[in-house]
Amino acid sequence: MNMPTFAAVSSVFLALAAAVIPVAAQAAPWPDKPVTMIVPYPPGGTSDYVGRVLADKLGAVLGQPVIVDNRPGAGAIVGTSIAARAAADGYTILLTAPEFTLNPAVREKVPYDAGKDFSPVALIASYPHVLVINPQVPAQNVQQLIALAKAKPGELNFASGGSGGSNHASGEFFKHTAGVQITHIPYKGNGPALTDLLTNRVQMLFTGYAPVEMQVKSGQLRAIGVTGPRRLAALPDVPTMAESGLNGYDFSTWYGVLAPAKTPRPVIDKLNESLRQVMAAPEVKDKLASLGADLTVSSPQAYGAMLQAEVARWATLVKATGMSAE
């Protein structure tokens, strides 16, 4: 048997190498084009504000633009479903908020599986709501508002950015804890809700502080309560709901980032590390300071565990309040 010569073996090896090298050269590192961040809420609210602050800095860290794509509708279901169907290549990510885990509790059918259709990237922030009222409402604090609501059951209205959302949940929790009858008026986003609050068509709104900061400072709205465990640095004179006599009322909302299921692990890890840089940046901290947000970035695993816990928490709250998005 004739053994192959060294020259023949070498030529075969070189031919194989020549075939492989072009393929490797084509595999550009992620990201090599713009990334789309779906924000499943309309422009003008807290979620949109957070999304744009996040996208601006994340684009700088990644070296590619991060484009905010507002896809509101059905309590964040429309945008979330679009993200669930997107290619799992790292070029579509989703900004998430409590509606992601609340929807399964308040709706009969949700067209995505919170546990199977997404890969957790990171929890990036949590913050309380602020209870703001129209100044024409004759109440200077939470206890006076409760007394007014009890004197006029069903006559006061509270707005929300949509049925089944986190500020709807804040209001229902308030009704349940305070033992009052107030009417929920849902809007298509916090922007329209805020417009009607300013004209006193509705009397109160639970929202992040950033979208109403100017109106509170100008006296167009009155802030009377903070829903979290401590006061906001931006509103040092506004007590928490617990300080106002509502023992057990502790309600904070949060934001996180998800990617479609089966997004490559190296992409998830790079996104997570990039988000750590983003949320540690002084300019991001300054822009989100008015929310009173805790900007600690979690691991993907910790965020996944938190989402599971949130599903259980919302189920308990919905059962206690009778809240529904239908």
Descriptors for this entry?
326 residues; alpha/beta; D-Maltodextrin-Binding Protein, domain 2; five-stranded mixed sheet
Describe this structure in words.
This protein is of the alpha/beta class. It folds into 2 domains: 35-126 and 253-321, Bordetella uptake gene, domain 1 (D-Maltodextrin-Binding Protein, domain 2); 130-226, Periplasmic binding protein-like II (D-Maltodextrin-Binding Protein, domain 2). It has 11 helices and 10 strands. It has helices at 6-26, 46-62, 77-85, 99-106, 142-151, 166-178, 190-198, 213-218, 265-280, 282-288, 300-321, and strands spanning 35-39, 66-70, 92-96, 118-128, 130-133, 157-160, 183-186, 204-207, 222-226, 252-260. A 5-stranded mixed beta sheet has the order 2-1-3-10-4, sandwiched between helices. The radius of gyration is 24 Å and the shape is globular. The model is unreliable at 21-26 (pLDDT under 50).
Order of helices and strands: HEHEHEHEEHEHEHEHEEHHH
Average pLDDT for all residues: 89
Spatial strand order of the main sheet: 2-1-3-10-4
Relevant CATH superfamily of the largest domain: Bordetella uptake gene, domain 1
Strand content: 15-25%
> Could you please say which CATH topology of the largest domain applies here?
D-Maltodextrin-Binding Protein, domain 2
| Second-tier CATH architecture of the largest domain | 3-Layer(aba) Sandwich
Low-confidence stretches: 21-26
Q: In the residues, how many domains can be counted?
A: 2
- For the CA atoms, what is the radius of gyration? 24 Å
The end-to-end distance, rounded to whole angstroms, is 80 Å
Report the count of strand segments. Answer: 10
What is the CATH C-level name of the largest domain? Alpha Beta
Largest sheet: 5 strands, mixed
| Portion in helices | 40-55%
Number of helices, counting only DSSP H or I runs of 4 residues or more:
11
Structural class: alpha/beta
